[in-house]
Amino acid sequence: MKWIRFFTRGNHPILYVYWVMESLRREFGDYFGLPNLKHWARHSGSLWVEERELKLLLQAIKKKLGTDWPYRALKKMKGDSEKLIVITKHTKHATKQNLKQIFDQAALAFQATYLPIMIDLVINEELKPVIEKVPLGKKPLMRQKYQQALRAVKKPNPEVFKKVFINYAWINSYVMDITPLTYETFKADWKSAKKNQIKAVQSQKTKINPRIDRLVAMAQEYIHFRDWRLYKISEFFYYFKPLLMKKAQGLSYEAARQLTPEELISGKFNRRILKLRQKDYGLMFASQGVKIIVGPKLQDFKKSIQDLNGRTSKIAGLIANKGRVTGRARVADAYNFSGIKSGEILITPETQPAAVPYLKKVKAIVTDEGGITSHAAIVSREMKIPCIIGTKIGTQVFKTGDLVEVDAQRGIVKLLKRAN
Fold first, then answer.
1. Lowest-confidence range among 191-200, 354-363, 401-410?
2. Which of 19, 44, 67, 364 is a Cys-bridge partner for 386, taking CB atoms 3.0 to 4.6 Å apart?
3. pLDDT digits (tens, 9 = 90+) for 260-319
4. Is the pTM of this model over 0.70?
Protein backbone atom coordinates (compact mmCIF):
# COMPACT_ATOMS: atom_id res chain seq x y z
CA MET A 1 0.00 0.00 0.00
CA LYS A 2 1.41 3.38 -1.04
CA TRP A 3 0.61 6.46 1.04
CA ILE A 4 0.66 9.92 -0.58
CA ARG A 5 0.95 13.23 1.23
CA PHE A 6 -2.25 15.03 0.24
CA PHE A 7 -1.25 18.38 1.76
CA THR A 8 0.29 20.08 4.80
CA ARG A 9 -1.62 22.57 6.93
CA GLY A 10 0.28 22.79 10.23
CA ASN A 11 -0.27 20.86 13.43
CA HIS A 12 -3.67 22.12 14.56
CA PRO A 13 -5.11 21.02 17.93
CA ILE A 14 -6.93 17.69 18.09
CA LEU A 15 -10.36 19.19 18.80
CA TYR A 16 -10.35 20.88 15.40
CA VAL A 17 -8.61 18.15 13.40
CA TYR A 18 -10.78 15.42 14.92
CA TRP A 19 -13.88 17.30 13.75
CA VAL A 20 -12.38 17.76 10.30
CA MET A 21 -11.45 14.08 9.96
CA GLU A 22 -14.91 12.99 11.06
CA SER A 23 -16.45 15.46 8.61
CA LEU A 24 -14.21 14.11 5.86
CA ARG A 25 -15.26 10.53 6.61
CA ARG A 26 -18.93 11.50 6.32
CA GLU A 27 -18.29 13.67 3.26
CA PHE A 28 -17.02 10.73 1.21
CA GLY A 29 -20.39 9.03 1.57
CA ASP A 30 -22.70 12.08 1.58
CA TYR A 31 -21.12 13.95 -1.33
CA PHE A 32 -19.27 11.38 -3.43
CA GLY A 33 -20.98 8.06 -2.82
CA LEU A 34 -17.74 6.56 -1.50
CA PRO A 35 -18.53 5.50 2.09
CA ASN A 36 -15.85 2.79 2.19
CA LEU A 37 -12.74 4.96 1.90
CA LYS A 38 -10.69 4.15 4.99
CA HIS A 39 -6.97 4.72 4.40
CA TRP A 40 -6.73 8.38 5.42
CA ALA A 41 -4.52 9.65 8.19
CA ARG A 42 -3.10 12.86 9.60
CA HIS A 43 0.09 13.48 11.53
CA SER A 44 2.58 16.32 11.99
CA GLY A 45 0.26 18.69 10.16
CA SER A 46 0.02 16.59 6.97
CA LEU A 47 -2.95 14.68 5.58
CA TRP A 48 -2.03 11.32 4.04
CA VAL A 49 -4.10 9.08 1.80
CA GLU A 50 -3.65 5.72 0.14
CA GLU A 51 -2.91 6.24 -3.56
CA ARG A 52 -5.77 4.12 -4.93
CA GLU A 53 -8.36 5.82 -2.73
CA LEU A 54 -7.19 9.29 -3.77
CA LYS A 55 -7.62 8.32 -7.44
CA LEU A 56 -11.17 7.07 -6.74
CA LEU A 57 -12.04 10.33 -5.00
CA LEU A 58 -10.63 12.57 -7.74
CA GLN A 59 -12.45 10.55 -10.41
CA ALA A 60 -15.72 10.99 -8.50
CA ILE A 61 -15.17 14.76 -8.26
CA LYS A 62 -14.27 15.05 -11.95
CA LYS A 63 -17.55 13.42 -12.94
CA LYS A 64 -19.47 16.00 -10.93
CA LEU A 65 -17.72 19.04 -12.37
CA GLY A 66 -19.89 18.99 -15.49
CA THR A 67 -23.03 19.41 -13.37
CA ASP A 68 -24.34 22.03 -10.96
CA TRP A 69 -23.15 19.90 -8.03
CA PRO A 70 -20.18 22.15 -7.06
CA TYR A 71 -22.57 25.07 -6.61
CA ARG A 72 -25.14 23.01 -4.69
CA ALA A 73 -22.40 21.66 -2.42
CA LEU A 74 -21.07 25.17 -1.85
CA LYS A 75 -24.53 26.48 -0.95
CA LYS A 76 -25.12 23.63 1.49
CA MET A 77 -21.76 24.09 3.22
CA LYS A 78 -22.32 27.83 3.58
CA GLY A 79 -25.70 27.17 5.17
CA ASP A 80 -24.25 24.55 7.52
CA SER A 81 -21.45 26.94 8.56
CA GLU A 82 -23.78 29.86 9.22
CA LYS A 83 -26.08 27.62 11.26
CA LEU A 84 -23.12 26.40 13.34
CA ILE A 85 -22.14 29.97 14.23
CA VAL A 86 -25.70 30.97 15.13
CA ILE A 87 -26.07 27.94 17.42
CA THR A 88 -22.70 28.49 19.09
CA LYS A 89 -23.09 32.26 19.45
CA HIS A 90 -26.39 31.87 21.31
CA THR A 91 -25.34 28.95 23.51
CA LYS A 92 -24.57 30.21 27.02
CA HIS A 93 -24.33 26.96 28.99
CA ALA A 94 -21.95 24.08 28.23
CA THR A 95 -24.42 21.29 28.92
CA LYS A 96 -24.02 17.87 27.34
CA GLN A 97 -27.09 18.46 25.18
CA ASN A 98 -25.87 21.87 23.99
CA LEU A 99 -22.38 20.58 23.23
CA LYS A 100 -23.74 17.59 21.32
CA GLN A 101 -25.88 19.91 19.20
CA ILE A 102 -22.81 22.01 18.38
CA PHE A 103 -20.66 18.98 17.64
CA ASP A 104 -23.24 17.42 15.31
CA GLN A 105 -23.55 20.68 13.39
CA ALA A 106 -19.75 21.11 13.28
CA ALA A 107 -19.43 17.69 11.64
CA LEU A 108 -21.57 19.06 8.79
CA ALA A 109 -20.02 22.52 8.62
CA PHE A 110 -16.42 21.32 8.59
CA GLN A 111 -17.03 19.40 5.38
CA ALA A 112 -16.18 22.78 3.86
CA THR A 113 -12.56 22.43 5.01
CA TYR A 114 -11.11 20.17 2.32
CA LEU A 115 -13.55 20.38 -0.61
CA PRO A 116 -11.92 23.46 -2.25
CA ILE A 117 -8.54 21.71 -2.04
CA MET A 118 -9.95 18.57 -3.67
CA ILE A 119 -11.52 20.59 -6.47
CA ASP A 120 -8.21 22.42 -6.97
CA LEU A 121 -6.47 19.10 -7.58
CA VAL A 122 -8.95 18.17 -10.30
CA ILE A 123 -9.11 21.47 -12.18
CA ASN A 124 -5.47 22.60 -11.90
CA GLU A 125 -4.20 20.76 -14.98
CA GLU A 126 -7.06 21.92 -17.21
CA LEU A 127 -6.76 25.54 -16.10
CA LYS A 128 -2.96 25.65 -16.02
CA PRO A 129 -2.70 27.54 -19.37
CA VAL A 130 -5.14 30.25 -18.24
CA ILE A 131 -4.46 30.56 -14.51
CA GLU A 132 -3.31 34.18 -14.75
CA LYS A 133 -6.48 35.13 -16.61
CA VAL A 134 -8.86 33.70 -14.02
CA PRO A 135 -10.84 36.70 -12.71
CA LEU A 136 -11.02 37.02 -8.94
CA GLY A 137 -14.56 38.31 -9.21
CA LYS A 138 -16.40 41.30 -7.79
CA LYS A 139 -16.89 39.82 -4.32
CA PRO A 140 -14.31 41.24 -1.90
CA LEU A 141 -12.40 38.79 0.25
CA MET A 142 -12.90 38.99 4.01
CA ARG A 143 -9.83 41.08 4.81
CA GLN A 144 -10.69 43.42 1.94
CA LYS A 145 -14.15 43.86 3.48
CA TYR A 146 -12.48 44.65 6.80
CA GLN A 147 -10.28 47.23 5.06
CA GLN A 148 -13.33 48.75 3.41
CA ALA A 149 -14.98 49.06 6.81
CA LEU A 150 -11.86 50.74 8.20
CA ARG A 151 -11.57 53.19 5.30
CA ALA A 152 -15.18 54.23 5.92
CA VAL A 153 -14.17 55.38 9.42
CA LYS A 154 -13.29 59.09 9.50
CA LYS A 155 -11.53 58.92 12.86
CA PRO A 156 -11.18 55.96 15.26
CA ASN A 157 -12.96 56.21 18.60
CA PRO A 158 -14.35 53.66 21.09
CA GLU A 159 -17.93 53.93 19.79
CA VAL A 160 -16.92 53.25 16.19
CA PHE A 161 -14.70 50.40 17.40
CA LYS A 162 -17.69 48.70 19.05
CA LYS A 163 -19.56 48.71 15.73
CA VAL A 164 -16.59 47.28 13.81
CA PHE A 165 -15.90 44.74 16.58
CA ILE A 166 -19.34 43.16 16.16
CA ASN A 167 -18.49 42.01 12.62
CA TYR A 168 -14.71 41.57 12.83
CA ALA A 169 -13.83 40.55 16.39
CA TRP A 170 -12.03 37.42 15.09
CA ILE A 171 -10.40 39.01 11.99
CA ASN A 172 -6.88 38.44 13.36
CA SER A 173 -7.59 34.92 14.64
CA TYR A 174 -6.65 31.73 12.84
CA VAL A 175 -8.80 28.66 13.56
CA MET A 176 -8.22 27.92 17.30
CA ASP A 177 -5.50 30.56 17.75
CA ILE A 178 -7.89 33.19 19.04
CA THR A 179 -6.66 36.81 18.93
CA PRO A 180 -9.65 39.12 19.58
CA LEU A 181 -9.54 42.48 17.87
CA THR A 182 -8.43 45.17 20.34
CA TYR A 183 -8.90 48.91 20.21
CA GLU A 184 -5.16 49.44 19.74
CA THR A 185 -5.04 46.94 16.86
CA PHE A 186 -8.12 48.55 15.35
CA LYS A 187 -6.40 51.96 15.32
CA ALA A 188 -3.22 50.49 13.80
CA ASP A 189 -5.25 48.63 11.15
CA TRP A 190 -7.15 51.86 10.36
CA LYS A 191 -3.91 53.74 9.71
CA SER A 192 -2.64 50.90 7.51
CA ALA A 193 -5.92 50.67 5.55
CA LYS A 194 -5.87 54.41 4.87
CA LYS A 195 -2.26 54.27 3.72
CA ASN A 196 -2.04 50.95 1.85
CA GLN A 197 -4.99 49.77 -0.17
CA ILE A 198 -4.65 46.44 -1.97
CA LYS A 199 -6.97 46.34 -4.94
CA ALA A 200 -8.24 43.05 -6.20
CA VAL A 201 -7.14 42.12 -9.70
CA GLN A 202 -9.96 42.26 -12.22
CA SER A 203 -8.79 40.10 -15.11
CA GLN A 204 -10.63 39.72 -18.38
CA LYS A 205 -13.11 36.89 -18.71
CA THR A 206 -11.83 33.84 -20.51
CA LYS A 207 -13.44 32.75 -23.75
CA ILE A 208 -11.69 29.51 -24.69
CA ASN A 209 -14.30 26.76 -24.81
CA PRO A 210 -17.47 26.05 -22.83
CA ARG A 211 -15.85 23.57 -20.43
CA ILE A 212 -12.85 25.78 -19.58
CA ASP A 213 -15.08 28.83 -19.21
CA ARG A 214 -17.34 26.87 -16.86
CA LEU A 215 -14.37 25.70 -14.77
CA VAL A 216 -13.03 29.26 -14.59
CA ALA A 217 -16.39 30.51 -13.32
CA MET A 218 -16.48 27.73 -10.74
CA ALA A 219 -12.91 28.46 -9.63
CA GLN A 220 -13.90 32.09 -9.14
CA GLU A 221 -16.69 31.06 -6.76
CA TYR A 222 -14.39 28.75 -4.82
CA ILE A 223 -11.70 31.44 -4.49
CA HIS A 224 -14.19 33.50 -2.51
CA PHE A 225 -15.53 30.45 -0.64
CA ARG A 226 -12.07 29.26 0.39
CA ASP A 227 -11.34 32.62 2.03
CA TRP A 228 -14.85 32.85 3.52
CA ARG A 229 -14.78 29.40 5.12
CA LEU A 230 -11.44 30.07 6.85
CA TYR A 231 -12.82 33.14 8.59
CA LYS A 232 -16.05 31.33 9.44
CA ILE A 233 -14.08 28.56 11.15
CA SER A 234 -12.17 31.20 13.13
CA GLU A 235 -15.43 32.96 13.99
CA PHE A 236 -16.89 29.69 15.26
CA PHE A 237 -13.96 29.02 17.58
CA TYR A 238 -14.09 32.63 18.81
CA TYR A 239 -17.59 31.93 20.15
CA PHE A 240 -16.82 28.35 21.17
CA LYS A 241 -13.78 29.13 23.34
CA PRO A 242 -15.79 30.25 26.43
CA LEU A 243 -17.87 27.05 26.27
CA LEU A 244 -14.72 24.96 25.93
CA MET A 245 -13.14 26.53 29.00
CA LYS A 246 -16.30 26.01 31.08
CA LYS A 247 -15.95 22.26 30.51
CA ALA A 248 -12.16 22.07 30.70
CA GLN A 249 -11.96 21.26 34.43
CA GLY A 250 -9.13 23.67 35.10
CA LEU A 251 -7.09 22.75 32.02
CA SER A 252 -5.21 25.47 30.19
CA TYR A 253 -6.59 26.48 26.80
CA GLU A 254 -3.60 24.79 25.13
CA ALA A 255 -4.40 21.49 26.88
CA ALA A 256 -8.19 21.77 26.46
CA ARG A 257 -7.74 22.07 22.68
CA GLN A 258 -6.36 18.52 22.66
CA LEU A 259 -9.62 16.98 23.91
CA THR A 260 -11.90 15.07 21.57
CA PRO A 261 -15.60 16.05 21.35
CA GLU A 262 -16.53 12.86 23.26
CA GLU A 263 -14.05 13.60 26.05
CA LEU A 264 -15.34 17.14 26.36
CA ILE A 265 -18.96 16.00 26.65
CA SER A 266 -18.26 13.18 29.12
CA GLY A 267 -15.65 15.05 31.16
CA LYS A 268 -13.53 11.90 31.18
CA PHE A 269 -9.97 12.21 29.90
CA ASN A 270 -6.39 11.28 30.79
CA ARG A 271 -4.18 14.27 31.56
CA ARG A 272 -1.02 12.29 30.80
CA ILE A 273 -2.35 11.45 27.34
CA LEU A 274 -3.23 15.12 26.77
CA LYS A 275 0.43 16.03 27.39
CA LEU A 276 1.50 13.46 24.79
CA ARG A 277 -1.00 14.89 22.30
CA GLN A 278 0.40 18.39 22.84
CA LYS A 279 3.81 17.11 21.71
CA ASP A 280 2.58 15.16 18.68
CA TYR A 281 -0.33 12.99 17.61
CA GLY A 282 -1.83 11.16 14.68
CA LEU A 283 -5.41 10.61 13.56
CA MET A 284 -6.65 7.91 11.23
CA PHE A 285 -9.93 6.53 10.01
CA ALA A 286 -11.25 3.60 12.01
CA SER A 287 -14.19 1.29 11.36
CA GLN A 288 -16.56 3.33 13.54
CA GLY A 289 -15.02 6.78 13.52
CA VAL A 290 -11.62 8.40 14.00
CA LYS A 291 -8.78 6.91 16.07
CA ILE A 292 -6.03 8.90 17.85
CA ILE A 293 -2.50 7.52 18.11
CA VAL A 294 0.35 8.88 20.23
CA GLY A 295 3.72 7.77 21.59
CA PRO A 296 5.46 4.66 20.19
CA LYS A 297 2.43 3.68 18.06
CA LEU A 298 2.58 7.05 16.33
CA GLN A 299 6.30 6.66 15.63
CA ASP A 300 5.71 3.18 14.15
CA PHE A 301 2.92 4.57 11.97
CA LYS A 302 5.12 7.38 10.68
CA LYS A 303 7.80 4.87 9.69
CA SER A 304 5.23 2.84 7.76
CA ILE A 305 4.34 5.79 5.51
CA GLN A 306 6.49 6.47 2.47
CA ASP A 307 7.32 10.17 2.56
CA LEU A 308 8.44 12.41 -0.25
CA ASN A 309 12.14 13.17 -0.06
CA GLY A 310 14.17 16.25 -0.69
CA ARG A 311 17.14 14.71 -2.55
CA THR A 312 17.03 17.14 -5.43
CA SER A 313 18.12 20.68 -6.19
CA LYS A 314 15.33 21.58 -8.63
CA ILE A 315 11.57 21.35 -8.24
CA ALA A 316 8.55 22.26 -10.34
CA GLY A 317 5.10 23.61 -9.61
CA LEU A 318 2.17 25.53 -11.01
CA ILE A 319 2.73 29.14 -12.09
CA ALA A 320 0.41 31.45 -10.17
CA ASN A 321 2.07 34.71 -11.21
CA LYS A 322 4.91 35.07 -13.70
CA GLY A 323 8.35 36.52 -13.09
CA ARG A 324 11.95 35.48 -12.49
CA VAL A 325 14.02 36.41 -9.43
CA THR A 326 17.03 35.24 -7.43
CA GLY A 327 17.39 35.60 -3.68
CA ARG A 328 17.91 34.01 -0.29
CA ALA A 329 15.28 31.52 0.84
CA ARG A 330 13.20 31.94 3.96
CA VAL A 331 11.58 28.59 4.82
CA ALA A 332 8.66 29.19 7.18
CA ASP A 333 5.70 27.22 8.45
CA ALA A 334 2.23 28.27 7.37
CA TYR A 335 1.50 30.32 10.50
CA ASN A 336 4.69 32.14 11.48
CA PHE A 337 6.13 34.66 9.04
CA SER A 338 7.51 37.10 11.58
CA GLY A 339 11.16 36.33 10.73
CA ILE A 340 10.86 37.31 7.05
CA LYS A 341 13.36 39.93 5.86
CA SER A 342 12.97 42.24 2.87
CA GLY A 343 14.10 40.73 -0.42
CA GLU A 344 13.86 37.09 0.68
CA ILE A 345 12.07 34.33 -1.20
CA LEU A 346 9.35 32.79 0.93
CA ILE A 347 9.09 28.98 0.79
CA THR A 348 6.19 27.69 2.87
CA PRO A 349 3.52 24.96 2.92
CA GLU A 350 0.89 27.62 2.20
CA THR A 351 0.04 31.26 2.97
CA GLN A 352 -2.85 32.62 5.00
CA PRO A 353 -4.60 36.02 5.01
CA ALA A 354 -2.83 37.01 8.25
CA ALA A 355 0.49 36.76 6.40
CA VAL A 356 -0.28 39.59 3.96
CA PRO A 357 1.73 42.30 5.83
CA TYR A 358 4.84 40.07 5.68
CA LEU A 359 4.33 39.10 2.03
CA LYS A 360 4.91 42.70 1.01
CA LYS A 361 8.59 42.18 1.88
CA VAL A 362 9.32 39.13 -0.26
CA LYS A 363 10.65 38.81 -3.81
CA ALA A 364 8.71 35.64 -4.59
CA ILE A 365 6.44 33.02 -3.03
CA VAL A 366 6.87 29.24 -3.34
CA THR A 367 4.37 26.86 -1.71
CA ASP A 368 4.16 23.11 -1.19
CA GLU A 369 0.40 23.12 -1.51
CA GLY A 370 -2.30 25.03 -3.29
CA GLY A 371 -3.98 25.41 -6.61
CA ILE A 372 -5.81 28.03 -8.60
CA THR A 373 -8.12 28.96 -5.68
CA SER A 374 -5.39 29.09 -3.01
CA HIS A 375 -4.52 32.22 -1.03
CA ALA A 376 -0.96 32.34 -2.44
CA ALA A 377 -2.28 32.28 -6.01
CA ILE A 378 -4.64 35.15 -5.28
CA VAL A 379 -2.37 37.41 -3.25
CA SER A 380 0.64 37.00 -5.55
CA ARG A 381 -1.39 38.42 -8.45
CA GLU A 382 -2.73 41.22 -6.28
CA MET A 383 0.80 42.18 -5.19
CA LYS A 384 2.46 41.33 -8.53
CA ILE A 385 4.92 38.92 -6.87
CA PRO A 386 6.33 35.94 -8.82
CA CYS A 387 4.73 32.82 -7.39
CA ILE A 388 4.92 29.05 -7.90
CA ILE A 389 2.42 26.87 -6.03
CA GLY A 390 1.91 23.15 -5.49
CA THR A 391 5.60 22.11 -5.52
CA LYS A 392 4.83 19.37 -2.92
CA ILE A 393 8.36 19.28 -1.47
CA GLY A 394 9.67 22.87 -1.53
CA THR A 395 10.00 23.10 2.25
CA GLN A 396 11.85 19.77 2.32
CA VAL A 397 14.32 20.62 -0.45
CA PHE A 398 15.37 24.12 0.58
CA LYS A 399 16.67 25.63 3.82
CA THR A 400 16.62 29.19 5.11
CA GLY A 401 19.60 31.07 3.68
CA ASP A 402 19.92 28.99 0.50
CA LEU A 403 20.47 31.02 -2.66
CA VAL A 404 17.64 30.05 -5.02
CA GLU A 405 16.25 31.05 -8.37
CA VAL A 406 12.48 31.23 -8.87
CA ASP A 407 11.67 30.98 -12.56
CA ALA A 408 7.95 31.62 -12.63
CA GLN A 409 8.05 31.79 -16.42
CA ARG A 410 8.58 28.01 -16.50
CA GLY A 411 7.39 26.95 -13.04
CA ILE A 412 10.86 25.95 -11.79
CA VAL A 413 12.62 26.63 -8.47
CA LYS A 414 16.36 25.87 -8.49
CA LEU A 415 19.04 25.75 -5.80
CA LEU A 416 22.04 27.90 -6.73
CA LYS A 417 24.08 27.66 -3.53
CA ARG A 418 23.54 26.02 -0.15
CA ALA A 419 23.60 28.22 2.98
CA ASN A 420 26.62 27.78 5.22
1. 191-200
2. 364
3. 999 999 999 999 999 999 988 999 887 667 889 998 888 888 877 755 444 678 899 989
4. yes
Q: Which residues of 344-366 are buried (b: 16+ CB within 10 A; e: fewer)?
A: bbbbbbbbbbbbbebbeebbbbb
How many Å apart are CA 22 and CA 42, to the nearest integer?
12
Strands 318-321 and 324-331: unpaired
Angle between helices 51-64 and 14-32 (to 10 degrees): 60
Query: What whole-number distance in Å separates Cα of residue 320 and Cα of residue 380?
Result: 7
Secondary structure element (H or E) that encloses residue 412, with its range: strand 412-417
Q: Compute the distance between CA of residue 103 and CA of residue 39 in angstroms, rounded to an integer.
A: 24
Please answer whether residues 304 and 41 qualify as being in contact, where contact means their C-beta atoms are separated by less than 8 angstroms: no
Task: Return the CATH fold of 314-417.
Answer: Glucose Oxidase; domain 1 (3.50.30)
Strand partners, 388: 319, 366
The phi and psi torsions of 259 (rounded to 5 degrees) equal: -80, 150
Q: Rounded distance, CA 281 to CA 267, Å? A: 21
Q: How far apart are CA 138 and CA 340, in angstroms?
A: 31
How confident is the model over 165-175, as a mean pLDDT? 91
Domain ranges of the chain: 3-135+209-304, 142-195, 314-417
Q: 377 with 320: CB under 8 angstroms?
A: yes
Q: Is 249 left (phi over 0), alpha (psi -120 to 50) or beta?
A: left
Alpha-carbon distance 141 to 146, whole Å? 9
Q: Whats the size of the chain, residue-wise? A: 420
**Alpha-carbon distance 417 to 404, whole Å?**
7
d(CA 237, CA 188): 24
